[in-house]
Amino acid sequence: MNYGEKVTDFADEYSPSMHTKRFQDYESPNKEVLKHFVKISQQATTLARELYKTRLNVRYGGKSDNQLLDIYYKDKEEGLPIFVYIHGGFWQELDKTTSGPIVHALIEHYRIILVDYDVCPKVTLLQLTQQMSNFFKWLSVYAKETGAPKISICGHSAGAHLALQMFQSEFLQAEQRLNAIDNVFLISGLYDLQQLWSFESCNPNNLLSLNPNLAIQLSPQCCNYNNELIGQYKAQEVKIHIITGEHDSEAFKRQSQNYAYKLTKLNMDVNYRMFRSYDHFDIIEECSQRNSAISRYIRKELGIY
After folding, report:
1. pLDDT digit of tens for each residue in the chain (305 aa)?
2. CA atoms within 13 A on the CB side of 162
């Protein structure tokens, strides 16, 4: 997929790079913002691997595929709370080597897990969501075995969509319950696939292997969540932060607002927040800076001052 390709009509709303206000001195600001994002994110990951202790390429599912994750920690792994980050890339691009910015502002207090997965079309989007369910099953066991007092989940863009596999009914089973989750950060996410799946700019040659019925089935906005599971998350006081940047597209903002409304109607603890000045990419880039607006917000909500 070429994020930098010019799209037309409403499909433009689902091409995040087209809405940046940065790099306006370049011939193609949309291409530059993507190059910059990859560069900055990979540099942050490389630095994190140099500065902190790691366990790399831990397998959470499968045998020879990309169901892998990296664990970062400062002094010890066991006993610390867990912060999970799931990268975006329209389910078709990027990997955990571009997930490093989130590590730096939290490593003093958390162990950070950067999650990878197989991108489409190596797998279908349906199969990809099943990989995320595998991850959450692994996480449930790992958190208990290593004494994690609490877990926070963060997903960016398509990663926010994947993070919501935590609402699948299978996590009602006692051995798979995610009892330690307390905060969920959904940053510039996608929650309704009914429109975007048909745009060639988002889903060229239907790499996601979707059809109208699957687009509904895999849309968190359209899901009828299990009342018992919702009750469980409310009982453990899960707070869901739905976040956008000022320079996200109107479609991304609207999807976030609609999903926040859906969860509010379910009496979940939801906070919708739009950050001024950020676009779809620097809202993640600046997670590497402890005093940036996005880092201050996440740290405050996690009780880190």
Report:
1. 343 344 345 778 999 999 999 999 999 999 999 999 999 999 999 999 999 999 999 999 999 999 999 999 999 999 999 999 999 999 999 999 999 999 999 999 999 999 999 999 999 999 999 999 999 999 999 999 999 999 999 999 999 999 999 999 889 887 788 999 999 999 999 999 998 898 888 899 999 999 999 999 999 999 999 999 999 999 999 999 999 999 999 999 999 999 999 999 999 999 999 999 999 999 999 999 999 999 999 999 999 97
2. 32
Tokens of 219: 């849309």
Contact 266, 230 (CB under 8 A): yes
pTM for this entry: 0.95
CA distance 201 to 195: 12
Length of the chain as a residue count: 305
| Strand pairing category for 68-73 and 53-59 | antiparallel
- What residues are labeled active site? 157, 248, 280
C-alpha–C-alpha distance, residues 255 and 264, integer Å: 14
- The residues, any chain, with a CB within 8 Å of residue 58's CB and separated by 6 or more, are 68, 69, 70, 71
Of 194, 190, 197, nearest in space to 248 by CA? 190
